[in-house]
Every structure is written in C-alpha cells, then in structure tokens.
Amino acid sequence: MAELSRAKSFDVRRQPGFTAVAILCFFMLYAPMVALVLYSFNAGQSIGTWEGFSWRWYESAINNREIQQATIRSLQVAGVATLVSTIAATMAALATTRTRPYRGMTFAFALINQPLMVPEIVTAVALLIFFAIIKGATGYTGMGYLLAAHAAFCIPFAYLPIRARLEDMDLTLEQAAADLYATPWQAFRRVTLPRLLPGILAGAMLAFVISLDDVVITLFVAGPGQETLPLYVIGQLRRIVTPEMNAVSTLFLLVSAILVTVFFLLSRRK
Amino acid sequence: MIELKHGRRQWALLSPAVGLITFAAAGPLIIVLIYSVLQKGDYAGVIWNFSADAWFNVFLERDIFDDTVSIADAHLSIFMRSLKLAITATVMAFLVGFPTAYFIATRPARSRNIWLFLITIPFWTNLLIRTFAIMEIIRNEGVINTLLMASGIIEQPIQMLYTDFAITLGLLYVYLPLMVLPLYASIEKIDFRLVEAAYDLYGTRWKVLRRIVLPLVKPGIIAGSILVFIPALGAYVTPRVLGGGKNLMLGNLIEFQFGQGRNWPLGSALSITLLVLVMFALLFYVRNTTRSHAHG
Hints:
The complex is a heterodimer.
Chain A: H1 2-5, H2 18-39, H3 56-62, H4 65-96, H5 105-112, H6 114-117, H7 120-138, H8 144-168, H9 172-179, H10 184-213, H11 216-221, H12 229-236, H13 243-267
Helix pairs in contact in A: 2-13, 3-13, 4-8, 4-10, 4-12, 8-10, 9-10, 10-13
Chain B: H1 7-26, H2 28-35, E1 38-40, E2 46-50, H3 53-59, E3 60-62, E4 69-71, H4 73-105, H5 109-124, H6 127-138, H7 143-150, H8 164-188, H9 192-200, H10 205-216, H11 218-233, H12 237-242, H13 250-258, H14 264-294
Antiparallel strand pairs in B: 1-2, 3-4
Helix pairs in contact in B: 2-14, 3-14, 4-8, 4-11, 5-8, 6-8, 8-11, 9-10, 11-14, 13-14
C-alpha cells in the first residue's frame, strides 16, 4: 500500500540515499583541493588560519630559484618524454590496429601496456639497479636515464587514445588514395595523419601530464642535481610547510586541469 | 597498399615502443629477480655470489645470539598492514563509488558527461598534490581541527595525520575515480526494463538492488576493485606523506632497503613479492572477466 501511495512519482532508477552519497563524494573530491587553493592566497604563515588575501606566496614561489630550476627541469623532461613516447606510440598504434592478427601482436600489446600493470615502485627499483650497472660500466651520469624512463612509462598513456582513434577510422579513404596512385607514404601523410591528429594530440597531452606528475620512478632514477618539481615538493613536505607549497601546487593543478580539459575536447567522439 | 601486411614492417613500426619499454621498464625486472638471489654488499649493491638470504629474510629472521629461526615480525606486520589498508580503501571506495557511479549513470545524457568529467579531473591531477591537500585538511593545525576547536566541540586537536586512518583516507581519496569509472561503465549498460519487471513482481528497493542491479554490474565491481587495490597495495607516496616515518607500507619498506637499509637483495626480493601479489590480483581479474563473457 505504501508503494501505491507514491506510485505517481515512482522512478525505477531511483535508489534512496544514493544521490546524497554522490553529492558527498563530489564534495569530498573537491573540498581538499579548494582548501589548498584558498590557502595559497593566505596572507599569514599558516595553512590553518585565514589572515587575509595576498599574492605574497605566489611572488615568493616564482622568485624561488630552486622552484624555478625544478620547474624548468620538469618541463624539459616532460617535453622530451612526450615527443619520444608519442612518436613511438603512434607507430605502435599503426602496427596494432586495422590489421590481421600476426605472430607476436598480442605479446607486443601486452608489453606496451606493461607499465600500467607493474607497481611503480617495482619498476623504480628495477631501473635504479639497471642504471647503476650502466653507470658503473660507462661512467655516463646525465639526464639520459631520466628521459628514457619517462619516455617508456608514458608510452601506454599516449598509445591508448591514439589506438582508440585509429579503430574508429575505416580504411576506405586510404584505399581511395591508393586507387588514385598515392604512394603509401603520401596516403599516410595526406589521409591517415590528418584524421589521426586529434588522437595523437590527446595522447601527447596525457603523456605530458603523466610525466609531469611522476614521483616514484623519478625519485629512484634522478641523479644529484636532477630534481624535478614533484621531487622538490615531496622534499619540502618533510619540513614546516608554508602556503608557498600551496601556491606551487595551485599552479601545478592549473596546468594539469588545462591539459586534461584539452584532452577531453580532443578525444570527444563526433 | 596501406594495410601493412608483412609482419616485418609491423615489427619495424613496433620497435621504438617495444625497444624503449624493454630497455627502461620491463627488461630491468629480470635484473631485480637476479639481485634477489645475490649476497648483499657491505654498503650498497651486491656481491656476485648466490645467496638465499634475501628470500629467507622476507618472511623469517634468525636470532643473532642463539640462531633460532622465527617469523620476521617487522616485515610481516608491514605486509599485513599493506593488505589491510589496501583492502579497506578498496571496500570504502566501493561503498562511496557505487552510489556515485549509479547517480551519474542515471542522469540525463547531457549532464552525464559533465559529472563524468568532474570525476576524471581529480584522477589526472597530480597524486602528490592531492595527497598534500589531504595532509593540510587533517593535520593538527588543519581545516578540520581548526573548525572543530573554533566551534568548541573539541579542546585538543585530534591526531589524524601520521596514522593508519590518514593513509586509508589518502588511498581512498586518490584512487576513488578508478572505482567510479568502471562501475559507471557497467551501470550505464543496465537494461532498466529488468528493474521495472522486478518491481512489478513486488521486489523491494533493497531486493532489486541486491538481486538485479548488483549482479548485473559485477564486472564493473571486479574491475574497479582491482584498479583500486593494485595501486593501493604498492602505494609509496601516500603512506610516505600521510603516514609520517612510522606507519609504513610495502612500497616504503622496499625504498628503505635501497636507501638507509642498504640491503639491495632484500629490497629486490620484497619487490618481486609485491609483483607476485599484484599478478595474482590481475589473474583473478582476467579469470573472472573471461568467465562472465563465456556465460554471456
């Protein structure tokens, strides 16, 4: 009877309390970040009591030489890693989609996705040991190790959106190009690549964000004087934290949010 | 032809990606396996002699005075804590994530994408910074304690930071989107005529949820749980920042062996152990998803 009385507004999809939990969930996801951003504008030293609005922590962060250097290094590493991993991922995506299965394709696919499955700390430890052996043998201690490590773990993140895009494209246009005497390279350059470009850019965005964010592998691979911005931040968290960290974090969040939004717009299907 | 028919050309295209991952991600794992059966060096590194000490030390310890062998409590407790925290975070993520995913999946098509986007944004923003945000919220001078003290509910700040609670909360916070997204994908596919039929047959809300909705979204539940459990088990950043120096998880124990602990073989053996645990979880996932496919 109770069911009948509210039958008029009965919605089979509704479950009581779910909306409340969902709202709570969104609040929980965003409240800490909002607080973090808010206190980056705090005039006082504290990150618990509000003492008025000020840009002082942004000024101090921007003028902090360590932060400047770490930021530049992060951008360099992410830039190189993105370029290398996106090219490698595009080639790999071309070789694993729109084709008949061939020997080793499943293996290649599993290997490309391997960095997604192994815990980062295990990869980090493996690279520490492996690169220590190479350092011992060759004496090279440059940025090469960090760049190689970042490029490698960025590949699956670049690969997946590119592959998704390729799978949505059929071969009709390429076949038409071939019928009109285009060489394979011309067909790729003039037909495949332009249509694939949004996928490639989306993959590059993800690769860049992933490289920029990495802590664990970087912590084990970076040599002295190769500190990236996340390494600087995690080092500072052991000390007394001032809103300067909030200012750095806010800028970091801003960059990520912009890149992710662009990624979404690019990978949205027609 | 555009369609590359020859395996050789395809391998040429694959070689940069496969080569780079073999060199700087997958290949070095073999070296970890080798190092785990070598003798530990005096300061760091290894001595190239076979030794089972590291594997022995993962679970057991030998008393230095009377040579009796007992279970390595220090390691075991960290193993158990890692499992406990990872499982707790996974269960909590499900309890929060399921209603959230359900909520998103039952929105009108247009606003659904916005809600999804709101779930995805935190996932792609820096994990370290999100952990830092949690740290600021729960520290003694943080927002929660300040508010509670200002309103007179408590007089002394509640110690939340550097506890197991803090780590669990952090893990839940950073990996929650990984639970919501696969759940959403499953719920979105539900044919709600089945739900309607269940109501017509006098099913209560709870019965419909338990007997119709939950079985239909089982693949999503398994996928989401695995996606949260695996990174939570191997977490390093979250327990380091929110657990302080004392509440360690497996990831921190491994790092310790390569740093101050100066026991690379033991660190290697612990890494392999973590890897095996993760592989078991993945295997469980693959077996369950393929079986549910087979049954349609």
